[in-house]
Amino acid sequence: MPFARIDLAKGKTPGVVVVAVCAVVVFLILPPFPKHFDEKTWRARDCPPGRYAMHQDFLNHHKVVGMTKEQLIDLLGPPDGDEKGVLTWNLGMAAGADDNYLEFQLRDGKVVSFRVWGV
Questions:
Q1: How many CB atoms lie within 10 A of CB 106?
Q2: What is the pLDDT of residue 4?
Q3: Is 4 helix (H, G, I), strand (E, B) or coil?
Q4: How many CA atoms lie within 13 A of 98 on its CB side?
Q5: Which residue, 47, 26, 45, is CA-closest to 37?
Q6: Which of 16, 54, 93, 97 is spaced 20 to 30 A from 30 at the CA atom?
Q7: How remote is the C-alpha of 50 from its chain's centroid?
Q8: Sequence ranges of the domains in the chain
Q9: Architecture in CATH of 34-118
Q10: Which is nearest to 48 in space by CA: 118, 83, 99?
Q11: Which residues have a Cβ under 8 Å from the Cβ of 118 and sit 6 or more positions away?
Q12: Are 82 and 38 in contact (CB under 8 A)?
């Protein structure tokens, strides 16, 4: 017989169900795989879900401390938040949590620090 019959009603394959449930749980817990930073993709209107996967590559390949506000906006597009020397970009959801943000603190028009945080 080339194919086995799966009969969940008789409890013949509880292992399949356990594996499927575990796969779903892992998918919801783990953050997305890192992706190469791409300005066009980052700036896309529907991008926040993909930004989280790109933010680490961006931070690894751009020396952001010391950048001007204009340089950041040239790379990342308009921020989602701009208040009192703090620029914020929404990174979307990761690991089943609420939205995450990439935030830059500015002093005298230049980045002095940054952080990634979630709500």
A1: 19
A2: 59
A3: coil
A4: 3
A5: 47
A6: 16
A7: 6
A8: 34-118
A9: 2-Layer Sandwich (3.30)
A10: 99
A11: 94, 97, 98, 99, 100, 101
A12: no
The first and second tokens of residue 74, run together, are 């040239």
Strands of 1-119, DSSP E: 81-83, 86-93, 99-107, 110-118
Is residue 72 within 8 Å of residue 106, measured between CB atoms? no
Torsions phi, psi for 105 (to 5 deg) = -90, 130
67 and 106 in contact (C-beta within 8 Å)?
no
Q: How far apart are CA 44 and CA 39, in angstroms?
A: 9
> 57-65 long-range CB contacts below 8 Å, 24 or more apart?
59/114, 61/37, 62/37, 64/104, 64/111, 64/114, 65/111, 65/112, 65/113, 65/114
Please report, in tens digits, the pLDDT of each residue of the chain (119 residues total): 566 565 555 555 666 666 555 444 444 444 455 578 888 888 887 767 788 888 999 999 999 999 999 999 999 999 999 999 999 999 887 766 678 899 999 999 999 999 998 86
Handedness of CA 10, 15, 18, 20 (dihedral sign): negative
